Amino acid sequence: MKLYLLFTCCFLCHNLTAQRLLERNVQLVPLADTTNYDPETGTSWAHSLSGWAGFGRYVISDNDHAWVQELGLTVELVRFSHKASLAFTTQIEFIADPNNNINFNPRAIFWSEGIFYMRRKGNSYWRAGYYHRCKHDIDNLNLGVERTLIFGSLMAERSHQLPSKQFKEAWLGYGADLYTIRQDDRFPQDPAPGGLNTMNLLSSFSFKSHVLKAFPSEKAGIYANAFLQANVYSANTGFTNRFSSPDRLNAAFGISAGLALIGNAQIRLGFNYEYLPDSGIPLAASGVHLFGIEIKGLNSNMLK
C-alpha cells in the first residue's frame, strides 16, 4: 500500500513536461537473472538475451497518435562472475496516425541504442553508460513538414528490488542523464521560437516504479508501472556555456496497469496513460495527453 501511495503521489503532484524516452515504462536489469549461471565458470560471453514487444491503440490522443508499436532488445555481451556485466541495448517506438482510409498512417519512428556496465550490490543494480537516440518522420512528404531529433547522453541509473510480502515483485528505479549530442532540425523553420527545443536540453532526472501482485495460482496477477522524468533546459545551446544558464524545468509522467499472465515470460494486458508536452512530432512543441490500451510481452527475469 505504501508503494502504491508513493507513485500515485508522484503521478498527481508533478504536473510538468518532458522529452519522449523509450525506457520510461521498463527497467533493464539483465544481471537479476541467475537461472542459467554457474558461479564457478567466471566470465561468460554472450551470456543472455532479453527483450520486449508491445502494441497499443490510443483512445485519447492528438492528430499524430493512433497506434504505437514498441520493440526492445538487450544483449548481455559479457558477464563478470555474478556481480557485473556489460550489455548493449536497442529500442524502437513506431507511431502511426489516423490520417488515411485505414486509420493507420506511418508517422514517426523513435530509435535508441546504448551500451552500459551494470554492477550488483545486494538488492540494488547500478548501471552507467552512453545512449544515442534519434527520431525521424515517415511518409510526411504530403505534409510539407519535417522534424528530426538526435540526442545522446551519458547516463546512470539504480534499480532496487524491494522486500515485500504483499507483492511478487516490487522495484524502484531512479537515474540521471547528461546530454552531449543535441539536434532539433525543423523544416520549415520552427514556427514558435522560444518554445521547447532539444538543442537546449541539459540533463534529465528520472523515477520509475514497478509492482506485481500475483493471484493465488501464481499464473496471473495485476501489474502497475509508473514513471516521472524531470528535464533541465539551458538558455544556451553551446556545449560548455549551457551549464551556466539553466532556465527551465520540465517533466513527463505516466502510469500503466492491468492484468499480467505469468510464465517463462510475462504477457501484460492493460491501459497506459502519459502526458508529454513535446511528443517530438509536430514542429511547434505542444502538450499531449495519451491514453490507450496495450498488450506487451517481455522477459520478466531481466525486465521490470
What does this structure look like?
The protein is mainly β. Helices cover 4% and strands 59% of the residues. Strands 1-2-3-4-5-6-7-8-9-10-11-12 form a 12-stranded antiparallel barrel. β6 and β7 form a beta hairpin. It starts with a helix and ends in a 6-residue tail after the last strand.
Shape: globular
Sheet/helix structural class: mainly beta
Strand order of the largest sheet: 1-2-3-4-5-6-7-8-9-10-11-12
- Summed up, the helix count is 1
Radius of gyration based on Cα positions: 20 Å
Mean pLDDT: 88
**Number of E strands:** 12
Helical content stands at: under 10%
Weakly predicted, low-confidence segments? 1-18
Fill in the keyword field for this structure.
304 residues; mainly beta; 12-stranded antiparallel beta barrel; 12 strands; 4% helix; globular; disordered N terminus
